[in-house]
Amino acid sequence: MDAPQGQEVVVREPLHKMKSYITSIFLVISCFCAAQQTLDQLLDQYTDRSIPYISTERLASIQDSVILFDTREKEEYNVSHLKNAIHIGYNHFKIKSFIRKNISKDAHIVVYCSLGIRSENIGKRLKKAGYINTSNLYGGIFEWKNKGYPVFTTKEEITDNIHAYSEEWSAWLYQGKKVYSN
């Protein structure tokens, strides 16, 4: 349709097409922003860093001299875990049961989970109970695997499998084979 001289023709898209277009743009921008988030930003979002982090490199160099606790759920631990890690879980963790293990209050304890969020919560409980030398593995088992360190099955055999926890959190696991619970 030609407009009379000096006037514009305005083509109006149906409202539902416009909303769909705006929603699509929003989703693309959201995904881009989420993909650009660093591990530090993620941990800042979900933790208060009240339990000091230990790097994967530092833990690898002293692993035999610390007590290592896996704070993930049993099905995650059973897929793979760090060598000599003891499963203590998260959802059913009881500080009284932990205290009964008679671990020295000044022992160097390292807690970990998938990324370091759940383990910080367990670390806080340990600290409150008097375990003064507790560290949280920065980036958890995901960062451990991403840096090329080995993980083990319940038979203590090296594996490439890592329980990825969820589709959302699995975006932080770049190495290994992602495994999900049924």
Structure description:
The protein has 182 residues and is an alpha/beta fold. The chain is built from seven helices and nine strands; from the N terminus they run ααβαβαβαβαβαββββ. The protein has helices spanning 15-36, 39-46, 56-62, 74-79, 95-99, 118-128, 140-146; strands at residues 53-54, 67-70, 86-87, 109-112, 134-137, 151-152, 158-159, 161-163, 177-179. The strands form three sheets. It has a five-stranded parallel β-sheet. The protein is globular, with a radius of gyration of 23 Å.
What's the CATH superfamily of the largest domain, by name?
Rhodanese-like domain
Number of domains: 2
Helices, by number, come to: 7
Average pLDDT reading: 87
How far apart the termini lie comes to: 59 Å
The geometry reads as globular
Stated plainly, the CATH topology of the largest domain is called Oxidized Rhodanese, domain 1
| Contiguous uncertain segments of 5+ residues | 26-34
What is the count of β-strands? 9
Q: From the helix content, strand content and strand pairing, which structural class follows?
A: alpha/beta
Report the C-alpha radius of gyration, rounded: 23 Å
CATH C-level name of the largest domain:
Alpha Beta
| Residues in β-strands, percent | 5-15%
> Mind describing the biggest β-sheet?
5 strands, parallel
Order of neighbouring strands in the sheet with most strands: 1-5-4-2-3
- Measured as a percent range, the helix fraction is 25-40%
